[in-house]
Amino acid sequence: MAQSTRARILIVDDERSIRELLEIFLKKEGFAVVAAATGADGLALAKATEFDLIISDIKMPDISGIDLLRDVRAANFTGQFILLTAFATAETAIQALKMGAFDYILKTENFMEELKLVVYGALEDRRLREENRYLRREFRKQHGMGNLIGKSRSMQELFKMIELVSSTTSTVLITGESGTGKELVAKAIHLNSPRADESFVSVNCGAFTETLLESELFGYVKGSFTGAASNKKGLFEVADKGTIFLDEIGDTGMAMQVKLLRVLQERTIRRVGGSEEIPIDVRIIAATNRELPAMVAENEFREDLFYRISVFPIELPPLRHRPDDIPLLANFFLSRLNATMGRRIDRLSDDALKKLEGYEWPGNVRELENAMERAFILETGDELSARHLPESVSSGNRNRAVADLPPEGFDLEAYVEGVQKSYLQEALRRTNGVQVKAAELLGMSYRSFRHYMQKYDVS
Questions:
Q1: Inter-CA distances, 284 with 88, 107, 158, 237, 247, Å
Q2: What is the CATH number of domain 155-317?
Q3: Which of 48, 106, 172, 307 has the smallest number of Cβ neighbours within 10 A?
Q4: Any idea what the Cα angle at residue 329 is, between residues 152 and 367, rounded to 5°?
Q5: What 8-state DSSP symbol labels residue 316?
Q6: Do domains 155-317 and 320-399 have the same CATH topology?
Q7: What is the distance between the alpha carbons of residues 87 and 81, in angstroms, rounded to a whole number?
């Protein structure tokens, strides 16, 4: 087995012959090896030097291998630990594994081949852990607070709320219109929490039928339905010790709401077709663009579930309520497009910026991001001009500015319904009548899209 990097290994064993045998063997494998004859010397070396792996005998005159394992972990040793013993007991083995040892090996007559396999396995496991930590750090840079842009008062208040709730385990309900960045906020809460190194699992509840959603969230046991060829973990199990984000929770049916309520109360799940109660340790963040209190009043959403998920409510403001943030967001998207598209546009023209600031953005931040990407693709110069913005933005023909409010007033509800209906019709036209794609274009679930089609008699 070739070792791609020169891993550093510390051997701690009071028996000279074993110590020298291990040292010679591991050096031949290409490792950098240091040896210590006592547990105390091994502990001093581990504190002074960074090792990828420590191999220690369990029984030593001064400090046992178990004590050495405990002490190096207390000193923030992050490498792997393998214990050697001539007198293994089940109790000792369990204790070692519970304290974080990778494995233990019996000193039999021919234990070196087993040791070789375990050493490579331990180092590969460490490599994967380090790689995962690196990827999580990079993920945190990309999706942490840095992607929540805003200098407006509402955004500053939002940042404070994220900071406050991140350190807790409270269930969070994020509300706001489609496109306001609810999943970004959920990721920011997770990445600034003690669970940041664990999984963040996102599921759009409105994208599944009730039956499929149940098996996605809770998993299933072999034979529970046609096609269930083996046991499968659900997303709650996948997210154990981390965070699960239940987007569009307002689109779940009553039967699923009962099951979610039980998870929140009992902190256990039951796979489809199974009887075993599986404990979970998951932080739940839910989100919706629907008015849950109104749904509760109309018996469309369970009141007890509403109170369970809204322990800490966060409402995201629509982009039209924070116009000061539009230039910041536009320039942020321009910088990101410069980094990802392989060419550079230096700035936004004054006219383009004026058009962006004058539009109401019914699709919120997502619509602004899409508009910037379209204009970037079309622009051939070093300044992004207004002529490449979508026609709705450059003409402003889908705005009704406050200044245009007629003296006699107007029917706001009818106006809003008219705008919604026109967007549904336009989305269907652009997607050749494919409703699923039209729903995606408008940033809503298929279930919500069907609801509004029926409400406004759109065919």
A1: 42, 47, 19, 12, 11
A2: 3.40.50.300
A3: 48
A4: 110
A5: P
A6: no
A7: 18
Q: Which CATH class is domain 320-399?
A: mainly alpha
Q: What is the mean pLDDT of residues 119-144?
A: 72
Mean pLDDT confidence for 76-82: 91
193 Cβ contact partners less than 8 Å away, ≥ 6 residues apart: 166, 167, 243, 283
Tell me which residue has tokens 């699709």. Answer: 363
pLDDT score of 11 more than 50: yes
- pLDDT averaged over every residue in the chain: 88
Rounded Cα gap, residues 204 and 319, in angstroms:
23
Decide if domain 8-136 falls under CATH 3.90.950.10. Answer: no
pTM over 0.85: no
Domain locations in the chain?
8-136, 155-317, 320-399, 407-455
Half-sphere exposure of residue 282: CA atoms within 13 angstroms, side-chain side: 31
Question: Which strand (E) or helix (H) includes residue 134?
Answer: helix 112-143
Distance from C-alpha of 227 to C-alpha of 236, rounded to nearest angstrom: 21
Q: State the amino acid at position 218 in one-letter form.
A: F
| Cα gap 217→207, rounded to integer Å | 13
Could you give the 3-state DSSP secondary structure of residue 406? coil
The reply to whether CATH 3.40.50.10490 applies to domain 407-455 is: no
The larger pLDDT score, comparing residue 415 to residue 306, is at 306
